[in-house]
Amino acid sequence: MKKRKNLLSVAILAAAFPITTFALTGITNAQSFSCANAQLPSEMAICNNESLLVKDEQVASLLASKLVTATASGTMQDVSDEHGNWLKVRNACANDMSCLEQVYDQRILGLTGRDL
């Protein structure tokens, strides 16, 4: 059981490494996925909408900061689970622009704790 937990921790760290590196290098204006590889209806809708691209960049940046903090505090699994659940909600919007806008606004609010 302990070996499986350690392997899971390594897998999570490996998955988070690009985001953590992104946060530590101070790079901004980078969306959370490549539009060149977009396959899901939600991803294609985001890539074709400037407002959603900006919001996706905000979420990626805020999440990177949160992952750095989570790594230090040992709560990375919680952050990872929370974001995975959010992605399911985002992807359920498919190409519904108003749904995507609302989901992104809620995520940004959740990551910042502030009103938009």
Descriptive labels:
76% helix; 5 helices; mainly alpha; 116 residues; disordered N terminus
Write a concise synopsis of the structure shown.
76% of the residues lie in helices and 0% in strands.
Cα radius of gyration in angstroms? 15 Å
Helix count equals: 5
Shape: globular
Give the termini separation.
Answer: 43 Å
Task: Report the mean per-residue pLDDT as an integer.
Answer: 81
List the secondary-structure elements in sequence, H or E: HHHHH
Number of strands: 0
The total number of structural domains is 1
Sheet/helix structural class: mainly alpha
Which percent range fits the helix content?
Answer: over 70%
Our estimate of the beta-strand percent is under 5%
Please describe the biggest sheet, giving its number of strands, its sense, and whether it closes into a barrel: none
User: Which residue ranges are poorly predicted, with pLDDT under 50 across at least 5 consecutive positions?
Assistant: 2-14, 16-29
The oligomeric state of the chains shown is: single chain
